[in-house]
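To assess whether the prediction recovers the assembly geometry, we first specified each molecular entity separately, as shown.
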Amino acid sequence: MKVPTRAIPILVPGYRFAGVRCGLKASGKRDVALIVSDVPAVAAGAFTTNLVKAAPVVLSTERVRRGRAQAVLVNSGNANAYTGRTGAAVAREMCGLVARELGVAESLVLPSSTGRIGQQLPRARVRRGVVEACRALAPDGFHRALEGIMTTDAFPKFALERVLLDDAEVTIAGMAKGAGMIAPRMALAGAPHATMLSYILTDARVSRAGLERALRIGLEQSFNVAVVDGDTSTNDTVLLLANGVAGNREVTPRSAAFAEFSGAVGRIMRTLARMVVKDGEGATKVIDIHVRRARDVRDAERVADAIARSPLCKAAFYGGDPYAGRVVCAAGYSGARFDPTRLDVYLDDVCIVRRGQEIIDKPVERRASRVVTRDEFSLTIDLHAGSAVAHRMASDLTVDYVKFNSDYRT
Amino acid sequence: MKVPTRAIPILVPGYRFAGVRCGLKASGKRDVALIVSDVPAVAAGAFTTNLVKAAPVVLSTERVRRGRAQAVLVNSGNANAYTGRTGAAVAREMCGLVARELGVAESLVLPSSTGRIGQQLPRARVRRGVVEACRALAPDGFHRALEGIMTTDAFPKFALERVLLDDAEVTIAGMAKGAGMIAPRMALAGAPHATMLSYILTDARVSRAGLERALRIGLEQSFNVAVVDGDTSTNDTVLLLANGVAGNREVTPRSAAFAEFSGAVGRIMRTLARMVVKDGEGATKVIDIHVRRARDVRDAERVADAIARSPLCKAAFYGGDPYAGRVVCAAGYSGARFDPTRLDVYLDDVCIVRRGQEIIDKPVERRASRVVTRDEFSLTIDLHAGSAVAHRMASDLTVDYVKFNSDYRT
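The predicted structure of the complete assembly is given in tokenized form:
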């Protein structure tokens, strides 16, 4: 996977962006981002399923239910999570400020936060940042806004698609942040896991049902299959806005153009989710875990999740060790029902376990070892128990992950 | 907790022990252990719940169901797991060899293995080791046998109790091994998770029901609450043998002496389980996680397990960071039902979250920081949602854990 290291200009008709500094990050980097559509947009959102939801998640969930939004206000450096009534009031206040400054309805302003859990936002500082962001809005501000949403990210994550819907060309652009506390389990206007934020903006005209359906499809193949550490955040948020200025015939779940639109949104979300895993704190590898022929989807997911979260499997991936025993062991304790004597395991196209027996053969071991040293490879577990499948994109567990996370606060 | 670093002599009337070398370990250390009772003993066992069970686990489970055993044969350096029919035949063959050498019924010989998964045992070598072990049996061989069951352990784990049952003094001695792949979930003659082996031997006269009950009670407060990495092994085994040579009145679940006996067995198992966590691969700390006032036991366990397995919480413990946000986040995604605004969190006796709000106060932070730098401390989460409780003994996640497990095979 190519990592977008250089900023290529991203323009989405009808949107303006800003990213400013108000002092929430010790690094002094941009920490307030604002995305505004010139006109109210159709909106769909998905949020963490963590029972403990950050204040902005609660407010955004409530607001996006109405299906419309015009501005997204994000701060990094502080999650505004576990901050009680004060935190909720501050989230509301900052949205109100955006509404007044820009003359948009307050209910159309959606807040997000990411950073440390359990601390109140410094109100005065954030107010200054919000006002400054409102004044700095510009059509070419995408990358500044993106910097404003980043926390522990090593590189910016964005993707762009231009597609023809009927006869109109539309633009779809997405940005994301996230590196740790990643195991999103999001539900539409109600559920994910990891601090992972993503905003996908398009000038296409799309019905609310079409937008929600595209988000739902995309989510299940992207952020919801990404696992860094398995810790589901209190703040995960994905928002999809369509302002319709491209003037195309409205895309609905039944229109001919839906597949094209939904496909492009899906590609963007998958690209962004993959970047999040690749940038997993300390990660050196992206492993695509595919479970095949499970008895049902729940079982397929159990096996995929057990492996994606197993410290032993993840440490072996880091070490470049094709240790089939740990993979089989994780499948065994996952709770899935299968016959261990029928299990097959592959690393890319190299079969390392056949019918429940590890293949002990020097050339196979050499090929498997080569696969595991790559920075991206797939691990396929065939359970021979049914026809259900599951996929997870996982990072490895590294010395740097532990160093980073044992030293986060200090 | 004191770690038993020096070998104090352990004698259990009516038992002989051996530990020999047959070349399964690259280190050249003892790798075959044998424990034999002079007379057939009443026996109870608990085994991994992993769907993938090692060959010796399957055989021991089957044999211990009859409630009697006379010998326990253990090899380290190779788990004999995921080894198919050949592995099962080898386990059976080695037990047969012990039976013939010692003149005991083959069905009374229980095998265990621990080490690498997925490789066949070298038959000829192990046969030689088994024969040698049979000849080396001695009443004072406890520590040699203990060395023979160890793998990645940094120190030997054993405990001893002498208690009066009615008027007879009885001895109860336990040994254990285990450091990684630790999250035992064992069920009596049928279920745990992690390679963790433990053998508890007593000369007490105990009924089968009494022995099983003592094992069941002990297990739920010891090995089954121990978590190093959350990976449940294919080989976990706990065996409890009572040969009755002390001549006490038989202990049954209803006899007056049961509480005394069961209490001593429980203390030994808790001590051994704690040693396993303390010796967790790379671990520097033991954290007792207590969940209180959960809606039901399942919810209490969900919260305790989520925290005990969360890489972010465990890395924070390692770093000596009392980061309440990660604990609250893990409780939130655990699946347990509670009101986040009523949650209290304590580090030892220092309250760091009260009614869902992190306490921001310098003296409290200083006290909490001091607690987290200790090598043993407790973390208590009060959910205010009911009356159920749960306990887990967890290790921290360290740089050395990752180094060790990314480099295990090479």
